[in-house]
Give the backbone structure.
Amino acid sequence: MDLEKTAFDHIIERRGTGSMKWDLAEPDLLPLWVADMDFEAPAAVKETLIERAHHGIFGYGAPAPGCDEAVVGWLRRRQGWSVTTEQLSFCPGVIPAVSLLIRLFTLPGEGVIVQTPVYYPFYDCISRNGRRIVENPLAFDGKRYVMDFDDLERKAADSRTTAVILCSPHNPVGRVWTEEELHRFGEICLRHGLFVIADEIHGDLVYRPNRQIPFASLDEAFAASSALCIAPSKTFNLAGLQFSMVVMADKQRRERFRDGLLALGLKRPNIFAQVAAEAAYLHGEPWLEGLLAYLEGNIAFLRDFLDRRLPELRLIEPEGTYLAWIDCRALGLSSQELEVLMLRDARVWLDEGYIFGDAGAGFERIVLACPRKVLEEALMRIEKAVRALPR
Ligand SMILES: Cc1ncc(COP(=O)(O)O)c(C=O)c1O
């Protein structure tokens, strides 16, 4: 393992900072559940925020063209995708965007497809808006999860099903969809007139040789019938600033989305979010490269630990995201027993697989974006609890 310590090895106390991850956890409970990172954001982001705070006046902000241009430049450099600033709309978070898109582009009672197991807030975005959840479960081919296209075709053919949420890269299973998969997916959606909501919030967190391909970049017809959600929040650990962008090629849809935001009184981003996002997209690239290398080290550490010390637990290799999806079914425990094992016995707080849908039962999701020592501590706690299980 790395002998040289990096900035990402540094353990920073987060309790007492109003952190959802740390301040909601009892003092002896180690949290690796919510998808935020225990790492400082890039120095350029911190300095920009300090400089802005020093000004001392925090009145209403104006639109920041520099921020939009920074987003456009980032997408071109990192993902080879050309969009115009005109195609971008601000929204204070990806989940609010997904929810609003569902309200605007589907009707009450209509079905919205999700590829399960999947990021659980999607279920709320659908059902709390009076739409129906339609599951297109992912299939496991023995090595990785793949889309079940036949099932998707069948579900999409129902005229009462009008939209689909594409999670790309996929949370929690860590897939980075290939060009071929995205094409097949997109063709089915086009054939049946489905509106595609592509949540690409993890799109910058991809491990080579995998490559993030923005869904809308593949085909003009895909772009015209989709909305693609991106954000600096996962990439640079800025989730608390609540900033995202929705990219839409279709002008009419874009206008409807902006009207929808206005109807909610949402006119402009938080002034701090705007400057932070701009600084991150302009100056954060070297930091991101360092982060990806560190995360790959954490994945290797986890793989090695499970192989040597916890062979009952199986890592589903992530191609992207900082999330590890772990198959714990060989322990022979029910979902409730597994939860008790982690929370009560090991004193680690993970996301239980079943909350991602029935297909997640028997799995755990671990957030790997923490110093390696913290990950090691969590794994040692889990190992001790597993060894203490009655045989
Ligand atoms: C796939 C996915 N979408 C959206 C979000 C949350 O986005 P936001 O905080 O911008 O609403 C997350 C956070 O974990 C996520 O994993």
Observations:
- The pocket of pyridoxal-5'-phosphate is lined by residues 35, 93-95, 119, 167, 171, 199, 201, 231, 233, 239, 244 (CB under 6 Å).
- The chain has a mean pLDDT of 96.
- The two ends are 33 Å apart (CA to CA).
- The domain at 7-42+285-387 is CATH 3.90.1150.10 (Aspartate Aminotransferase, domain 1).
